[in-house]
Amino acid sequence: MKAYSKTSRIAALALGTGMALLMSSAAAFSADDKVSIAVNTMQIFSSLDPAKVTDYTGYMAIVNMYDGLTTVSPSGEIVPHLAKSWDISSDGLSYTFHLRNDVKFQDGTPVKASDLVWSVQRLLGINKGPSNLIVGLIKPENVAAPDDVTFSVKLDRQFSPFMSITPLFMALNQKLIEGNTQAEDKWGEAYVGEHSAGSGPYKLASYNRSADMVIARNADYFRGWTRGKPIDEVRFVQTSDDATVKALAEKGELGLSSHGLGNDTYEAIGKMPGYKLIQTRTAGGFVIKLNTKVAPTDDVHVRRAIAYATDYKTIQDVIYPGTDMTGPLSTAFKDAHNDGVEPGVFDLEKAKDELAKSKYAGQNITLVNSYVASLAFEAEVALLMQANLEQIGITLDIKPEPWNRIVELSSKPETTPASTQVNISPSYPSPDSMFYNQYHSRASGTWMSMEWLQNPEIDALIDKARGETDISAQTAIYKEMQAKLAELQPDVWAVSPNRRYGASKCLKGYEFIPMQSWDLNFSNFHWDCKAN
User: Where is the secretion signal located (predicted)?
Assistant: First the structure.
């Protein structure tokens, strides 16, 4: 009864916040002069800084407020953006980018190559978020601007996925940020954390980290606004409460939902007048990460037992609709995928056999399972796992946590839960993103790497693939790695979910892009109610 009352209070508070934000949204939908939409997010915007982002809301913020050196097409191809073209040296170490000369920051200052140099040096200096991709690969002094429209980078070693990470080389306004630094804050982290300092299609209008964020259209955006009637304002409403999101839709005030709601909620929204369901594939998956450094998941046989005790079909057909995952790499990366890796099998007898082989056999085993509090489908998965694991002699201790707490816990192996439910997707369009961010020792200490695998053989294979420029040889390494990871079972690869959004029928232009949150760049959307 207490849990119900608490949930009701949270829902009422979130609904009140949403309503206060969105009082004029319905009128804005029909107004000819301005389109303002409400977009639901599952979690807070923990960072707005391109040098610090790690999760889907952070990437959604930066793709809307900043511009990268390149960007990503729906097919996963790296295409020009700030850079019109580029040259790569024959040894694969030197990259020269030729920039557009018509881009301005949101304060009217021209974007110059020197801003990109400073931004990359800032990324290296802060040494958080995406920096682990280039620390040890690029020295600050090897990033240069020979002139205002030429940006060059020299790598310390060959790194075959380099072009795939260039969308994350975001241009920040050096002059603006340096004018707002403090002695103890060389890189202006406090300022960038609460302001937009880019040239992107939207600029920050208001920000309340614990509840909501509003971004407003940059009318002078260099790409222009030619894709129909643009979205002038996006009001993000943070709640994982399905009832709150449905209430917004019932009032006609929801533009786009998050992708982590319950099945019934999507079905209900899809049937409402003026609404539709957007359903697309993903390039990642929903996994249960198993901490290989703490009991009892430090034993591979326990990890395999948990995998066998997972009812994949119930998860895929009922709780979180989707298809089989076959190891750590999505079939979206068709050429690099190892088709010989089999999907998980639900078999309690095999689970018991594996548990009997472990060093914990015959003991009372308790397994902590953490997930994002208030995500209904993750709570259902936890209860399903609890019932199945009980049958093989494992007690599941369910511990829902706020997302920021999960991020905090993941920083050390001893605080990372033995098992944690997460959605994982590529933060850049390369198989390397799925391997390096999760399994390489150098990437340990983030929510993406809660396995704490730190396996020298896997590290060596990842490094070998990163240095291999022959595609067929690199593909062979990727396939070998997938087979070895399947044997090590650092995760339960539960489902490749169908990405779903509840959306207003007037919201047009959605396209799936195989890079985290790049599909939620609202400059690619437009508003058209005439066709409905």
Answer: 1-30
365-372 and 394-401 strand pairing: parallel
Give the separation between CA 223 and CA 229, rounded to whole angstroms.
14
* Distance of alpha carbon 121 from alpha carbon 178, whole angstroms: 14
Instruction: Compute the distance between CA of residue 401 and CA of residue 387 in angstroms, rounded to an integer.
Output: 21
Q: What is the pLDDT of residues 36-93, one digit of tens each?
A: 999 999 888 888 999 999 999 999 999 999 999 999 999 999 999 999 999 999 999 9
Cα–Cα distance, 90 to 481 (Å, whole number)? 28
Assigned token pair, 303: 């990890």
pLDDT at 27: 37
Strand, helix or coil for residue 113? helix
The reported pLDDT for the residue numbered 148 is 98
Residue 282 has a pLDDT of 87
- For residue 210, the model assigns a pLDDT of 66
pLDDT at residue 260, as a whole number: 85
Say if 32 falls within a structural domain. Answer: no
* Phi and psi based region of residue 445 (left: phi greater than 0; alpha: psi -120 to 50; beta: remaining): left
Is cis: bond before 296, omega within 30 of 0?
Answer: yes
Question: What pTM value is reported for the model?
Answer: 0.86
Which one, of 202, 196, 173, 169, lies nearest residue 72 by Cα? 169
Q: What is the pLDDT of residue 133?
A: 92
Selection from 320, 335, 343, 339 nearest residue 422 by Cα = 320
Q: Six-digit token pair at 108?
A: 């009217």
Q: What is the 3 state secondary structure string of 326-342?
A: CCCCCCCCCCCCCCCCC
263 belongs to a structural domain? no
User: How confident is the model at residue 5, as a pLDDT?
Assistant: 32
| pLDDT for position 435 | 98
DSSP-derived 3-state class of residue 400: strand
Look up residue 380 and give its amino acid.
E
C-alpha distance across the termini of the chain, in Å: 43
Asked if residue 451 belongs to a domain, the reply is yes
Q: Within 13 Å, how many C-alpha atoms sit on residue 346's CB side?
A: 15
Query: Structural domain tally of the chain?
Result: 1
Place of tokens 């979205």: 231
The partner residues of 150 in beta bridges, in order of sequence, read 98, 147
Asked if 357 and 304 count as a contact pair (C-beta separation under 8 A), the reply is no
Q: At what angle do helices 348-357 and 300-308 cross, to 10 degrees?
A: 170
β-strand pairing of 83-88 with 94-99: antiparallel
Q: Which residues of the chain carry a pLDDT beneath 70?
A: 1-32, 210
CATH number of the domain bearing residue 471: 3.10.105.10
Return the amino acid letter for 383.
Answer: L
